[in-house]
Amino acid sequence: SLDGIQKNVGEALAVIVIFLGQIAAGSSVFNLCAFLLACLVVMLVRIYGLAGKVKAKTPEAGKTPVIQAIAGKNGATDLKVANISNNSP
Questions:
Q1: Are 13 and 43 in contact (CB under 8 A)?
Q2: How far is 19 from 13, CA to CA, in rounded Å?
Q3: What are the pLDDT digits (tens) for 39-74?
Q4: Are 55 and 31 in contact (CB under 8 A)?
Q5: Which helix (H) or strand (E) segment is 55 a member of?
Q6: Which residues make Cβ contacts (< 8 Å) with residue 29, sequence separation at least 6?
Q7: Minimal CA–CA distance to 81: which of 58, 60, 65?
Q8: Is pTM, for the whole model, over 0.70?
Q9: DSSP summary character for residue 72
Q10: Which end of the chain, N or C, is more open, meaning fewer C-beta atoms within 10 Å of its C-beta?
């Protein structure tokens, strides 16, 4: 759910703020690896939240072209539209 995603983003941002606060206070040294990992978590969770669900495509009802392969010049195969059928149920 969206609430769970927002909670994860909030927690990851809180970790980054606490990390930067400890560095500013002088109680910790800057660790580039930890900072980049925290930023990566925030970005990935945001991307996941923005992605949405994938929906299966349904074929459109209507006319569908039927393609036939015919022998062409020099043994090559040519394609041509033979007829158009109606796919109505």
A1: no
A2: 10
A3: 888 888 778 777 776 676 666 666 666 666 676 666
A4: no
A5: none
A6: 23
A7: 65
A8: no
A9: -
A10: C
